[in-house]
Design brief:
Elements: H1 2-17, E1 31-34, E2 37-39, E3 45-46, E4 49-54, E5 57-63, E6 74-77, E7 82-85, E8 87-92, H2 129-132, E9 139-144, E10 151-159, H3 165-168, E11 169-179, E12 184-186, E13 197-199, H4 203-222, H5 230-234, H6 236-239, E14 244-249, H7 252-265, E15 270-274, H8 282-287, E16 291-294, H9 310-320, E17 325-327, H10 334-337, H11 341-350, H12 355-361, H13 364-370, E18 387-390, E19 402-407, E20 410-411, H14 417-426
Parallel strand pairs: 1-6, 2-7, 8-9, 11-14, 14-15, 15-16, 16-17
Antiparallel strand pairs: 1-4, 2-3, 4-5, 7-18, 9-10, 10-11, 12-13, 18-19, 19-20
Helix pairs in contact: 9-11, 11-12
Length: about 425
């Protein structure tokens, strides 16, 4: 009996020590932020601004002249600081994996090849330690995306301050993710094959399988029969424009084939994810109204004959062509790298974009791609008060230091496991 009590006490203590930051309270009083430089997110900037919000909705964004009646509001004096809309990280496994080596905390991939009915949202862990570490850098929204298979599943958009996935959801089941086959493959050296690149001998077969599945799904979407086929039913949104098709593909021919395939299927909402060679097809993508979620900026060139800085300047090349571009962070340690999203955008500034263009890559552009721009992505009247105040340039890791952040008007905690440890151990060697 004593052993059981001891185990119970230990369990409670561990649970408390690992508890998430409590989500912020609903906004109960109007808030006015005065004096800061407001970066709207649509390319505009307001110096010495007044940003006012109530009930989680932005009521006013204008120049502060000092004559406004703010007596009944909570006033935040932010002179010399900067206000930004909350950053949005797309194509992320945040909340789906906590520790890679612990199988029970890894829920980003389902078995099988065709999984459009798999809903990543219900596996999202709002109490993730990784999720809470995004907020101190201004990343306040994320698209939770499954992995694996030919069709990975359905993604949803969440805000990063919630008790559970029901509280977190911003847009539910908004996108289906298709992994387009590679047009090229490498030989297997262990079988004595040449390790160089060569045409994928299975490419035609794989694309034919995709076409057959989509034709079957389209026929099912028009059927009036009462039979239930969960995977095919999940595909209906692609054909009635309620869902977006996110195609994960990198090579030039694959990108072209994927877009032409989508046109043939009558799918109008298409986004290329990764898109390493989209810079070769900028005009084509613009003409076909295809957006791009560009691969992690801090990457090396794929081929030896590519410019060393190609990944850094790719966003500039696409923006110049008029393509709607957002930034994503998938790859090794993608969850941890999601917190670096603003600094990836900052790198694009060093390679040709203006700061406000770079800001759009992680705010309004991404919001449009995810279908949440009516409420999020910019500091405009009528939109959600999901924003933060930084002491410096939020795209520069040297100066991005948040003082306050709000999600839907709620003043949220900027504490994380890392900041708690920093405060704890910073005192260890301090001199009194």
């Amino acid at each position: 009996m004593k052993l059981i009590k001891l185990i119970s006490v230990i369990t409670v203590c561990v649970t408390i020590s690992n508890a998430q930051q409590t989500p912020g309270d609903q906004q109960s009083k109007s808030v006015a932020i005065i004096g800061a430089t407001a970066h709207i997110g649509n390319g505009n900037v307001v110096e010495n601004s007044l940003v006012l919000f109530n009930n989680g909705i932005i009521q006013n964004v204008s120049v502060y002249n000092g004559s406004e009646d703010l007596t009944k509001m909570d006033v935040i004096k932010a002179s010399g600081q900067h206000i930004y809309p909350g950053f949005i990280v797309p194509n992320s496994t945040l909340g789906l994996i906590e520790i890679d080596a612990v199988r029970a905390s890894d829920d980003d991939e389902e078995i099988g090849t065709w999984n459009p009915h798999i809903r990543s949202l219900i596996a999202y862990n709002a109490e993730s330690k990784v999720v809470e570490s995004m907020r101190p850098n201004g990343v306040l929204l994320a698209q939770i995306t499954p992995r694996g298979g030919r069709i990975s599943g359905t993604s949803s958009v969440v805000q990063l301050d919630a008790w559970n996935w029901e509280d977190a959801v911003v847009r539910e089941n908004g996108g289906i993710h298709l992994n387009w086959p590679n047009t090229l493959t490498r030989g297997r050296r262990w079988l004595g094959e040449d390790s160089g690149l060569k045409s994928n001998p299975k490419y035609s077969i794989q694309t034919t399988e995709i076409e057959a599945y989509f034709k079957h799904s389209k026929a099912n979407s028009k059927s009036s029969r009462g039979t239930q086929n969960l995977p095919l039913n999940a595909m209906k949104g692609l054909f009635n424009n309620s869902k977006t098709l996110f195609i994960h593909v990198n090579d030039e021919k694959g990108i072209w084939d994927a877009v032409e395939f989508s046109k043939k299927q009558g799918i109008t909402k298409v986004v290329i994810v990764g898109g390493y060679e989209t810079y070769k097809l900028g005009t084509y993508l613009k003409e076909n109204n295809v957006s791009v979620l560009l691969q992690r900026v801090h990457s090396r060139p794929t081929n030896d004959d590519h410019d060393y800085d190609l990944p850094f300047k790719m966003a500039k090349l696409l923006v110049d062509e008029g393509v709607n571009v957002g930034l994503e962070t998938s790859g090794d340690m993608e969850r941890m790298n999601s917190r670096n999203l603003p600094f990836y955008a900052g790198t694009t500034v060093a390679h040709g974009l203006s700061k406000e263009q770079a800001l759009q890559l992680i705010t309004l552009n991404t919001a449009k791609i995810l279908g949440i721009d009516a409420k999020y992505g910019s500091l405009e009247v009528g939109k959600s008060a999901t924003l933060f105040i930084s002491k410096g340039d939020a795209l520069d890791m040297r100066t991005n230091q948040l003082t306050q952040a709000f999600i839907d008007g709620r003043n949220i905690s900027l504490e994380s496991h890392q900041t708690e440890l920093w405060k704890r151990y910073s005192k260890k060697y301090s001199t009194n």
